[in-house]
């Protein structure tokens, strides 16, 4: 994916999306269940930010081939 300004937005229906700053199309969508929202006590946006941050970092590593071990196989844990 080309380098672009990314933004995290909470939509009116409660979904949290990652999208390019110049586009309304979602790249990733997170939706927490009512039980998860209750457990997180209103902090679902902070949890979503952390999840998306790690996801973007992992995508960068994949793009660089950094998730392969010495044998050239992908490590899944």
UniProtKB/TrEMBL annotation:
Domain of life: Bacteria
Protein name: DUF3509 domain-containing protein
Organism: Pseudomonas pohangensis
